[in-house]
Amino acid sequence: xxxxxxxxxxxxxxxxxxxxxxxxxxxxxxxxxxxxxxxxxxxxxxxxxxxxxxxxxxxxxxxxxxxxxxxxxxxxxxxxxxxxxxxxxxxxxxxxxxxxxxxxxxxxxxxxxxxxxxxxxxxxxxxxxxxxxxxxxxxxxxxxxxxxxxxxxxxxx
Length: 157
Description:
With 157 residues, the protein is mainly α. It is 71% helix and 0% strand. The chain contains 5 helices and no strands. Helix 1 packs antiparallel against helix 2, helix 3 packs antiparallel against helix 4 and helix 4 runs antiparallel to helix 5. The longest helix is centred in the first third of the chain and has 28 residues. The model has no long low-confidence stretch (mean pLDDT 86).
């Protein structure tokens, strides 16, 4: 549990920092407008503020947990390169496959590649997750938002 609390502390601080960077960028590059007539910078600034607040909450909760276990020995922090690499590879595969193959193969690729990062995932669970996310992505992006990309396309040109 102590390792999880330390990982949560680092993650919370990183999320908080990203939120602050987003707020600073939005204020510097987009007009904010007023609350009555919001400008294009209001949404990213608000989103960055909420992200920063959630990061602080995560970091403070893990800090309290670490203070409660202050006398115990802490195991070394492990960085799992396989998890990070396969997660990034899944996102890259989605970006590469979306236009030439369509939404459905791209979603299946991102789910299957990212799921390989955890050895505890079972094949049936991966297939069910992929199918559910394909349905959700299709309903949200194709029919709900009306984005103009094909569901399945096999042109590589």
